[in-house]
Amino acid sequence: MSRMLCARLLLIAGAMLVAVRPSPGQSIFATVVGTVTDSTSAVIAGAKVTVTNLKTNEKRDFTTNGSGNYEISNLFPGSYVLEVEMAGFAKYRNEQIVLDPNQNARVDVKLEVSGQVTEVTVTSEAATLVETETAKLSDVRNLQQLQTLPLAARSVYRFLVLTPGVTGGQNGTMSVSGSGLRQVHFAVDGVTMSDVRTSNTIGPTLNFIEAFEELRIDFGNNSAEFKGVGTLDVTTKRGGNNLHAAVYDYYSTGAFIARDYFTGQRPGAPNHGFGTSVSGPAYLPKLYDGRDRTFWFASYETSFAPEGVSNLTPAVPLAPWKQGDFSGQSTVIKDPLASGQPFSNNIIPQARINNVAKQYLPFWPDPNFGSASVFAAQNFRQQFRVPFAKPHNFQTRADHRISGKNTIFGRYLHQRQQNPDVESGLPATLGYHQQLRVVKHALVSDTHIFSPSLINEARFGISFNTNPQSAKDLNGP
């Protein structure tokens, strides 16, 4: 009985593994590698290498091997201090280490023999523009660029199209280095945000940037582990040892946009992007001090603009046509039930008009542009105002260092917005409908360091995206 029970449990477990379709993911963590040598370029084995996160004071260390090499992986993107110590040598300290998502940064160190100099500190160093550890071509938008570049809207898509070789719309349907429109993989904190059906990104997740620390897009020689020609890695902000808060109003106006060549008018309308964020260590007086251990971040963003204006120019039938009267037209209307003989006076009898068509035809308005007796394209003109779709975007994240070898973090996003839109090209009779779009995204990640050469990273993420249409009652004739 026990063998049969075990066999059944194994079959059930195997079926569950087959049934679950894992979402593609990737690491957001960076790696620092290098070689430690002395002034004669001889390698130094046994040197202690330590990197410290300036924001959270988290430390990681490594001892150089027999070849003088070191490698410290699974580091959160951000600013670090790198220190190297070895008996008989002056201490080396580099305060200019900035790591991007999924980056392999090489920092070689040359130690000086201790004497009058006890410590060598690097406070200014030329930026490394070429990543020598991989063949990938990448572009990065750091926090300073996200906050200061003057764009029409604070959206990730606006920053992506600034990268050479990136073309396409601003809704996640874009091409990288000549790729197809659906050959770019989008990930936030290493968890995919691409739609499983279309491979496009779940658009609203990247419409706001207050919660994002950095963007990195790989657009050439991408790793074989990723299915897309291009890969976008978005890293979210996390809290640190210091309390930070921000409130902003990002204002843009059509007055600063170039005039349309044909109409001479400036497109767009004034738009306000409101937002706030706050972060810091977890701290409860006399109960818990989370500095150097537990951190949190939260943000809320929305935007507001006047009503949108749509200029609609459909082609509608002439008023007599809806009654079956084509007497003023040169085209002969033939009766299919009378061997193709023409209708008398080119008029279709009311009894011969389909009952369904009789209910549908009145929805078409009469022409209001050009001649009322001569059919022409775009013979109906209407300016239709649509209420602004006010979105609400909330994001939060928590990080906790269980020990020097184990860290976890979790993140949650919730966005809700109405998307009013015209029901068709006939708003005069059909009006518009509301689409309530809700997007949710959650992830949990655990990193455990068993040894400097054995690190396990476990991550689970789930995305929820719904965009149903709820039409108003049709405004019949």
Word description of this protein:
- This protein has 477 residues and is mainly beta.
- 8% of the residues lie in helices and 42% in strands.
- The strands form eight sheets. Strands 17, 18, 21, 26, 27, 28, 29, 30 and 31 form a nine-stranded antiparallel beta sheet that branches. Strands 3-2-5-6-9 form a five-stranded mixed beta sheet, with no helix packed on it. The chain has a five-stranded mixed beta sheet with strand order 10-15-16-13-14.
- The longest helix is centred in the N-terminal third of the chain and has 18 residues, at 2-19.
- The protein is elongated, with a radius of gyration of 31 Å.
Low-confidence residue ranges: 5-25
- Straight-line distance between termini: 73 Å
Molecular shape: elongated
Our count of helices gives 5
Helical content stands at under 10%
Look at the helices and sheets and give the structural class.
mainly beta
Provide the gyration radius in Å: 31 Å
- Strand proportion, as a percent range, falls in 35-45%
| Structure summary, number of beta strands | 31
Sheet with the most strands, sense and barrel status: 9 strands, antiparallel
Mean pLDDT: 82
Characterize the quaternary organization of these chains.
single chain
